[in-house]
Every structure is written in structure tokens, then in C-alpha cells.
TrEMBL record:
It comes from the Bacteria. This is Lipoprotein SmpA/OmlA domain-containing protein.
Length: 81
């Protein structure tokens, strides 16, 4: 849904909503960051879930120059202990 060189800020906001964080870079670029913590069923069990459950954070970084998307990076990482 997000396309480099074509998608605008308004379109990204319509598709993904308001970002959790916005970074403004010295060169004029603006980075919108979206993230979501994912847990499997075991991670939801009190006490036991911390040891057996799986948690991961999905992160999407959308970079704009002016009103257009110039970069879009998606990755998954583990939460810091």
C-alpha cells in the first residue's frame, strides 16, 4: 500500500493511521515510525508466559522528503529484556 516515490503523507496516514513516533532529520526528511508488539498464546499466560511465550515487535519506518515517500523499511525484532 505504501509506494516509494508515489505515496503521500495523507495516503500513508489514511492507510496506517497516526504514527507512534515522528523524527525530523537535519536534511529535511521526516520519518514516521509505526510499531506493534506481537505475543503468541503462551506469552499471555501469567507467570509461565514470560519463560515460554514468544514476543516480537514489528516496526515500519516510512521516510518522507517533502510530501512523498522516499523509503519504507519493515522489520521484526525481539523486545529488550
Amino acid at each position: 500500500m505504501v509506494h516509494k516515490g508515489f505515496s503521500t503523507k495523507a495516503e500513508v496516514k489514511e492507510y496506517l493511521g497516526v504514527p507512534q513516533k515522528i523524527e525530523r532529520l537535519p536534511d529535511g526528511r521526516e520519518v514516521w515510525i509505526y510499531y506493534d508488539l506481537r505475543k503468541d498464546a503462551l506469552a499471555s499466560i501469567p507467570g509461565l508466559g514470560e519463560k515460554l511465550g514468544k514476543k516480537e515487535i514489528e516496526i515500519l519506518r516510512v521516510t518522507f522528503y517533502g510530501d512523498k515517500v522516499v523509503d519504507c523499511i519493515y522489520y521484526v525484532t525481539k523486545p529488550q529484556p
